[in-house]
UniProtKB/TrEMBL annotation:
Entry keyword Repeat: yes
Keyword vocabulary terms for this entry: Pyruvate, Repeat, Transferase
Domain Rhodanese: 16-133, 161-272
One Pfam family it belongs to: Rhodanese
Recorded GO MF terms: thiosulfate-cyanide sulfurtransferase activity
Source species: Microbacterium hydrocarbonoxydans
The keyword Transmembrane helix appears for this protein: no
Name of the protein in question: Thiosulfate/3-mercaptopyruvate sulfurtransferase
InterPro entries tied to this protein: Rhodanese-like_dom, Rhodanese-like_dom_sf, Thiosulphate_STrfase_CS, TST/MPST-like
Domain of life, source organism: Bacteria
């Protein structure tokens, strides 16, 4: 089964009365709290999920901007969303699936069946489907989560990764090259990392491209079936989207959740500049 669900499939799933829980993960760097936008209009029945408190935790700058939540924190959140054992969760956002992918990455590790709405809220609106403005608070769920973290790598593992596999930097090319850094104290990339921006996997409507195109994009940087691969970004959110896309074409990937925000805030870590891995 695909990790992605189309608008048409979601409508059918909801109409069937099956165990579906829809979550709205409205989040962007310039708007970390998307609750007001959720209240302005969301898919009927969708529960709002605050990424920065339920899909991440907080610590020192050297921990990165979005460290992983504990399994207990994630389980408490999932139960608040109304997720019950056996449910399928469908996540969406309005930012090309970036935040929804963070939910996918965490819940998948925890043993929950989860899919991402292809095209997100924009696709729902383009189909002429209705939105609601209530704040949904379902009855608490009873889901039991498995321990998360096995698909994450540490800062030391990220540093060593290029020696035995492909480390992907999925930020925009100018940030990778070190020409522009809007958030972190140092510009550049982890030595040995290869740049494949997240936008390379989506069409103009924010929907995932076909398998052949995706395979060719990754093969160009040495990622094929059997290649050890890990991804990082600015703070571990966009990298989860790359893990989602890779999984869709049958390639397992790790994520460095600390990403550049952790690397650039850790004294002594080397930095590479320019368009080559370095």
């Amino acid at each position: 089964m695909s990790n992605f669900v189309s608008v048409e499939e979601l409508v059918e799933l909801r109409a069937s009365g099956g165990p579906i829980r829809v979550i709205d993960v409205r989040w962007r760097l310039d708007r970390p709290d998307g609750h007001a936008d959720y209240l302005a209009g969301h898919i009927p029945g969708a529960v709002f999920v605050p990424l920065h408190t339920e899909l991440a935790t907080h610590g020192e700058p050297s921990d990165g901007r979005h460290p992983l939540p504990t399994t207990a924190t994630l389980q408490e959140a999932a139960r608040r969303w109304g997720v019950r054992s056996g449910d399928t969760v469908v996540a969406y956002d309005d930012a090309k699936g970036l935040a929804a992918a963070r939910a996918w990455w965490l819940l998948r590790q925890a043993g929950v069946k989860i899919r991402v709405l292809d095209g997100g809220l924009s696709a729902w609106g383009a189909a002429g489907l209705p939105l609601e403005t209530d704040d949904v608070h379902p009855e608490p769920g009873d889901v039991e989560l498995e321990e998360i973290g096995a698909e994450a790598i540490s800062i030391d593992e990220a540093a060593a990764f290029p020696a035995g596999g492909v480390l992907l930097d999925v930020r925009a090319a100018d940030r990778y090259r070190g020409e522009h850094e809007p958030l972190d104290p140092v510009a550049g990339h982890i030595p040995g990392a290869r740049n494949v921006p997240m936008a390379a996997h989506l069409d103009v409507d924010g929907k995932i491209l076909d398998t052949h195109t995706l395979q060719a994009t990754f093969a160009a940087v040495g990622v094929t079936n059997g290649t050890p691969v890990a991804a990082y970004c600015g703070s571990g959110v966009t990298a989860a989207h790359t893990a989602l896309v890779l999984d869709e074409i049958g390639i397992e990937a790790k994520v460095f959740p600390g990403s550049w925000s952790q690397w650039s805030n850790t004294p002594g870590r080397p930095v590479a500049l320019g368009d080559q891995p370095g």
